[in-house]
Amino acid sequence: MTIEAQDEQQAATKDRLVAAPISQDVGFLLAKLHAGGSLVNNRALAEFDLKERSYSVLILANSGLEPTQRELADFLSLDPSQIVALVDELEKRKLVARAPGKQDRRAKTVTATSKGSQLLAQAAVAARHAESEVLAALDDGEAAQLKALLRKALWG
Fold this sequence. Notes:
Elements: H1 3-17, H2 26-45, H3 52-61, H4 69-76, H5 80-92, E1 96-100, E2 108-112, H6 114-134, H7 140-155
Antiparallel strand pairs: 1-2
Helix pairs in contact: 2-6, 3-5, 4-5
């Protein structure tokens, strides 16, 4: 079977399975969109030696909000040990710095360095292109509405 024939067969199978009841399940749809989006995002961020998770930590570290490692873990729905590993890697690259928290000196805040801010500015362009690729079937208004609805579902 040729590669072209395989591609056509895969497209036909995909189209056929869209009729399955699971294609109406919000959990399935969110998981599928996330999986596809992660692949595209990670491909776009690779040139900056970042992945979705490290990029997310870098964005939050650059937000001016001085998040603690615990806040990062909670917000990103990651185990605290995963955040420590991500921050360790970003800190080793001199993209973020840890500091004692202002409220609780035992808590470590994470902030972007100037090098981290510069890299983030470049990576953000690639991430926006990746997002556009993932949401290509939506017009700008629909993409904005999708984001608004997801934010509402998550945080009210």
